[in-house]
Amino acid sequence: MASWLCHNCCPLEVKRRPPPSLPEIQQALVTMGDKPDSCSGSREWIGTFEASLVLDYFYDVPCKVVHVRGGGAELEHVAVEELHQHFDKHGSPVMMGGDRDNSSKGILGVCTGDEGSYLLVVDPHYYGGQLEKTELQRRGWVAWKRVSSLDQSSFYNLCMPQTAKKGT
Fold first, then answer.
1. Spatial distance between the Cα atoms of 14 and 20, rounded to a whole number of angstroms
2. What's CA 149's distance to the chain center, in Å?
3. What pTM does this model have?
4. H helices within 60-157, ranges in order?
5. CA-CA distance, 61 to 11, in Å (whole number)?
6. What string of DSSP letters covers 50-83?
7. Among 62, 24, 22, which Cα is nearest to 159's?
């Protein structure tokens, strides 16, 4: 998300700064008072809420955090209402994380049709060199996922960077 902000909507002086490293993120959370000193250098989980704090801290981009109590109809509603509005207005990627479904997801798009809503999901855990988009899809790093296929008993948090209106 930080990389997207650097390339798409930050002032020139911010663009020159690479996305923060994990130690920089941990130290920022300690400095803000969100985490204790023991967080620095630890393997402590950084979730959706912390991502919103970090984006505001490093890039001066506030985030809307949407909590979805459970999958199913509530998540479908958020996909139809919140995500469509977010991508229309801001265009920035969305971070999604949950409890039972604790695999973070980068959401790059949403599509709703007769058979329900789908999320364009990129797995933020990818590492390695650049791959062609077809290879990323073939290996499962990028895929359209039906909202109803997500864990129905998991809560989800979505971090939506509130960037300037697209095209401005």
1. 11
2. 19
3. 0.85
4. 73-78, 84-89, 133-138
5. 12
6. HHHHHHHHHH---EEEEEESSSTHHHHHHIIIII
7. 62
